[in-house]
Write a structure and sequence with these properties.
Layout: H1 2-19, H2 29-95, E1 114-117, E2 120-123, H3 138-141, H4 146-149
Antiparallel strand pairs: 1-2
Helix pairs in contact: 1-2
Length: 154
């Protein structure tokens, strides 16, 4: 029995050192046990709180993963839509003439006949009175800013 008692005393000294490191060990066994129970309860509460927080974080991670997958799917869909639109634009561009003439600049009697070469319509120019300025975009022909852009030379 005395060996057992010594062993218990050393356990209480170790418990006191663990509860309050750096201070003189307590000899009051009830105070030591009360402090130990209080620390164990605090650790148990903190463990419960951390477990709840861990569950919340896992739920948030799953939500973010599903959102990421949705965004990836939307990105793929948008990429496919973009490619489809680009194909349509290329298809439209291949069948239209590469220029447009101003309808007011050319009367119907002098309209340009088109000649089909392959898949494109090419103008067949046979009238010498049709000038090329009608095929130039209107912004290039505009002379309203000439006095600013090109001042007169003396």
């Amino acid at each position: 029995k005395p060996a057992m008692r010594k062993c218990q005393e050393s356990w209480f000294l170790e418990l006191s050192a663990a509860l309050e490191p750096g201070t003189k060990p307590k000899c009051d066994k009830t105070a030591l046990l009360t402090d130990a129970i209080w620390v164990v309860n605090m650790l148990h509460e903190e463990t419960s709180r951390l477990k709840e927080q861990n569950v919340k974080w896992k739920e948030k991670i799953n939500e973010l993963k599903s959102e990421k997958n949705e965004l990836r799917a939307e990105k793929q869909r948008l990429k496919a839509d973009k490619e489809d639109i680009e194909k349509r634009i290329k298809a439209l561009g291949a069948h239209q003439p590469s220029f447009q003439y101003h309808s007011t600049a050319m009367p119907a009697s002098y309209a340009i006949p088109y000649q089909r070469i392959g898949t494109e319509l090419v103008p067949f120019m046979n009238n010498p009175h049709v000038y090329m300025w009608q095929f130039v975009p209107q912004t290039v022909v505009d002379t309203s800013e000439d006095h600013v852009l090109h001042p007169p030379v003396a």
